[in-house]
TrEMBL record:
<dbReference type="InterPro" id="IPR011356">
    <property type="entry name" value="Leucine_aapep/pepB"/>
</dbReference>
<dbReference type="InterPro" id="IPR043472">
    <property type="entry name" value="Macro_dom-like"/>
</dbReference>
<keyword id="KW-0031">Aminopeptidase</keyword>
<dbReference type="InterPro" id="IPR048816">
    <property type="entry name" value="Peptidase_M17_N_1"/>
</dbReference>
<protein>
    <submittedName>
        <fullName>Cytosol aminopeptidase family protein</fullName>
    </submittedName>
</protein>
<dbReference type="GO" id="GO:0070006">
    <property type="term" value="F:metalloaminopeptidase activity"/>
</dbReference>
<keyword id="KW-0464">Manganese</keyword>
<dbReference type="Pfam" id="PF00883">
    <property type="entry name" value="Peptidase_M17"/>
</dbReference>
<dbReference type="InterPro" id="IPR000819">
    <property type="entry name" value="Peptidase_M17_C"/>
</dbReference>
<comment type="similarity">
    <text>Belongs to the peptidase M17 family.</text>
</comment>
<dbReference type="GO" id="GO:0006508">
    <property type="term" value="P:proteolysis"/>
</dbReference>
<keyword id="KW-0645">Protease</keyword>
<feature type="domain" description="Cytosol aminopeptidase">
    <location>
        <begin position="308"/>
        <end position="315"/>
    </location>
</feature>
<dbReference type="GO" id="GO:0030145">
    <property type="term" value="F:manganese ion binding"/>
</dbReference>
<dbReference type="GO" id="GO:0005737">
    <property type="term" value="C:cytoplasm"/>
</dbReference>
<dbReference type="Pfam" id="PF21337">
    <property type="entry name" value="Peptidase_M17_N_1"/>
</dbReference>
<keyword id="KW-0378">Hydrolase</keyword>
Length: 461
């Protein structure tokens, strides 16, 4: 992987960004030989399209990268990142009038285009390198790219190599890198320390469930991140069909995303006190599996009727949220690949979120487009509270009827956050279903960059 900018050099190749609407003007600035080459090639500055400008000595004089037209730019994030794989080997310097967030997106897209998953097979690394453009915070962008790469790698790793212990090892390695403290509660110790629902969901698996608890930072406002770490989800006794089980290695995408975000926060040295909580389990089938109709008592003391063992993510998150709530952080955020209903509502690209504080929601709405990390607010719609109250217990983990599945799941989680005033929940997909610029098919972070951008305002850093 190549996730850093190149060192400055005097012989860097100029890489000129050109929009379709300004191609004719750019052509006028080119030497006659390059202008003729542009005409001969039929180059039209399509988004991410590359035109190499040959020199008289056989070397490269420069290259053009298309910005497309306004419609193309609106439809595709990181569109110019396609150019990295198409450019010949060399070190390039950017020539552009772009500034601010538009320039950041180009530079970050370049870095993310260097991210390949190579745990099981090698992929050719891009040979083109870019000097950090003037006007960008290179260290920040490199930290963001590294955090995103961590998230992707964790999601892409199959459950055979990413069980609860492996996820804990990944968190421990991150803690060691940045001097964070970490504690992991394993197996039956979860019962002794009052995490009954995490234990109930994970007890049927051969690999023991656990709760990962990481702390970093000694001063500043308090932020708690909670990530769903279901390393594989069979559906339990409500077994998923094979087609629905195929992507379930990504069911720990919430955990992967909060670890990636934590990496960004720690690498950038944000002045806050960070806590990361990850309930890491496998939802498996055995004689010890929890059953439909069971009633579980949570850490919070609320009872939960199990009407579907495939709605397990909210159960393990509930105990972790209850723990986080006991410290009453300034802000608590949960991230989870929680419901198919969210995908039906907004598709794979948008990350729906819920917020108890409207100012936090506003901050995320403003931050997201600045960092090309789209989010969409959904409501904690209290009239639907009755849907998660079965009567036989305090809560129902899988209300009947099929309506408002993402909202009712969010309302369920909110019941476990009673002392913390500000709570945000993300119901993410965590997967790129088709290749896009800087985002190959596979695991992908969602919401982390938007949160990172919004945090200074949300927490007054």
């Amino acid at each position: 992987m190549s996730l850093t900018f190149a060192a400055p050099t005097d012989d860097a190749i100029p890489l000129t960004l050109v929009a379709k609407e300004s191609l004719a003007k750019v052509k006028e600035t080119l030497p006659d030989s390059h202008a003729a080459w542009l005409d001969a090639s039929g180059y039209s500055a399509g988004l991410g399209a590359v035109l190499v400008l040959p020199g008289k000595d056989g070397k490269i004089d420069g290259a053009l990268v298309g910005l497309g037209d306004a419609k193309a730019r609106a439809r595709m994030r990181f569109g110019t990142a396609k150019a990295r794989a198409a450019l010949p080997e060399g070190t390039y310097r950017l020539v552009t009038d772009l500034t601010g967030h538009a320039l950041d997106e180009v530079a970050l897209g370049w870095l993310l285009a260097g991210n390949t998953f190579e745990k099981y097979t090698k992929h050719p690394a891009p040979k083109a390198e870019l000097i950090a453009p003037d006007g960008v915070d290179a260290a920040r962008l490199q930290a963001i790219a590294a955090g995103e790469a961590l998230t992707r790698d964790l999601i892409n790793t199959p459950a055979s190599d990413m069980g609860p212990a492996d996820l804990a090892d990944a968190a421990r390695a991150l803690a060691d890198e940045f001097g964070a403290e970490i504690d992991v509660i394993v197996g039956d110790d979860l019962i002794e320390q009052n995490f009954p629902m995490i234990h109930a969901v994970g007890r049927a698996a051969a690999r023991a469930p656990r709760l990962i608890d990481m702390h970093w930072g000694e001063s500043g406002p308090t932020l708690t991140l909670v990530g769903k770490g279901v390393c594989f989800d069979t559906g339990g006794l409500n077994l998923k069909p094979g087609a629905s089980m195929g992507l379930m290695k990504k069911d720990m995408g919430g955990a992967a995303t909060v670890l990636g975000l934590a990496r960004m926060i720690m690498a950038l040295g944000l002045k806050l006190q960070l806590r990361v909580l990850i309930p890491a389990v496998e939802n498996a089938v055995s004689g010890d599996a929890f059953r439909p109709g069971d009633i579980l008592t949570s850490r919070k003391g609320l009872t939960v009727e199990i009407n579907n063992t495939d709605a397990e993510g909210r159960l393990v998150l509930a105990d972790a949220l209850a723990l986080g709530d006991e410290d009453m952080p300034d802000l608590m955020v949960s991230m989870a690949t929680l419901t198919g209903a969210a995908r039906v509502a907004v598709g794979p690209d948008l990350a729906p979120f819920y917020a108890t504080d409207e100012m936090d929601a506003d901050a995320l709405r403003v931050a997201a487009p600045k960092v090309a990390d789209p989010v969409w607010e959904m409501p904690f719609w209290t009239p639907y509270d009755a849907m998660i109250e079965p009567g036989i217990a305090d809560l129902d983990n899988a209300p009947k009827g099929g309506f408002a599945g993402s909202i009712t799941a969010a309302l369920f989680l909110k019941r476990f956050v009673t002392d913390t005033d500000r709570y945000v929940h993300f119901d993410i997909f965590g997967w790129q279903p088709s290749a896009a610029p800087a985002r190959p098919v596979g695991g992908v972070g969602q919401g982390a960059r938007a949160l990172l951008e919004a945090l200074p305002g949300m927490l007054k850093l």
